[in-house]
Amino acid sequence: MAILQHTLGILVNPDREWQRIRNEDQSFFKVFMLHVPILALIPVIAGYFGLTQVGWVVGSGPVVKLTHESALLICASAYIAQLVVVYVLGEYINWMSRTFGVSDSASKRHYEGTALAVYTAAPMMLAGVVLLYPQLWLVVGVLVVAAAYSVYLTYEGIPILMDIPKERGFIYASSVVTVALVLAVVVMVSSVIIWSAGMGPVFTS
């Protein structure tokens, strides 16, 4: 369970944990497949329960819930989206490594960028447990804090993991955060398009 131990270490002492991750002999498969599919289940399971069993209230109206079939479809799509976003972000980080002066030995490992994407996404996935109680103010508040910490991890992790100066790492991290925001927008736009095509949420009567 060493992979999951890194998740705890990133939350408690990120600088030390980034160094440990960099010094380990890992692989793309171990970093991605033994980590992301597990953590991505947290918001999915919590969201399914919250949407079908707890529900939410709009203004002074009644409690709103989704049908089990609708919630299952939405949660399954969210699960796939998490895997795709983390993978694509990791590939982008690997692709940009040489542009920012990462050594050939590190960039050829095809591991550091994936590790950065995986471990910086961990706070967002862990924060997904808040979907057990899907109240707008609570969900937004928790996810904003988690997103802020993920950004912090990105700026702290890139200079250490890629072994480059902090000045260059800052620019590198800024480009990574920008791409992450673009991916988030793409996911939201895709959701709107899918819902507009008649596959939107179905509420219980």
Mean pLDDT: 87
Which residue ranges are poorly predicted, with pLDDT under 50 across at least 5 consecutive positions? Answer: none
Which range best describes the helical content: under 10%, 10-25%, 25-40%, 40-55%, 55-70% or over 70%? over 70%
Gyration radius, to the nearest Å? 18 Å
What general form does the structure show? elongated
**How are strands sequenced across the largest beta sheet?**
1-2
Tally of DSSP helical segments: 10
Total strands: 2
For the termini, the CA-CA separation is 44 Å
Q: How many structural units, i.e. domains?
A: 1
Please indicate the percent range of residues in DSSP E strands (runs of 2 or more): under 5%
Largest sheet: 2 strands, antiparallel
Summing up helix and strand content along with how strands pair, one would put the structural category as mainly alpha
One letter per element, helices H and strands E, the order comes to HHHHHEEHHHHH
Entry keywords:
205 residues; mainly alpha; two-stranded antiparallel ribbon; 10 helices
Would you kindly provide a written description of the structure presented here, covering whatever features stand out?
The protein contains ten helices and two strands, in the order H-H-H-H-H-E-E-H-H-H-H-H. The protein has helices at 2-12, 14-23, 28-33, 36-39, 41-54, 68-96, 104-107, 112-127, 136-162, 166-199; strands at residues 56-57, 63-64. A two-stranded antiparallel sheet has the order 1-2. A hairpin with a 5-residue loop joins strand 1 (56-57) and strand 2. The radius of gyration is 18 Å and the shape is elongated. The model has no long low-confidence stretch (mean pLDDT 87).
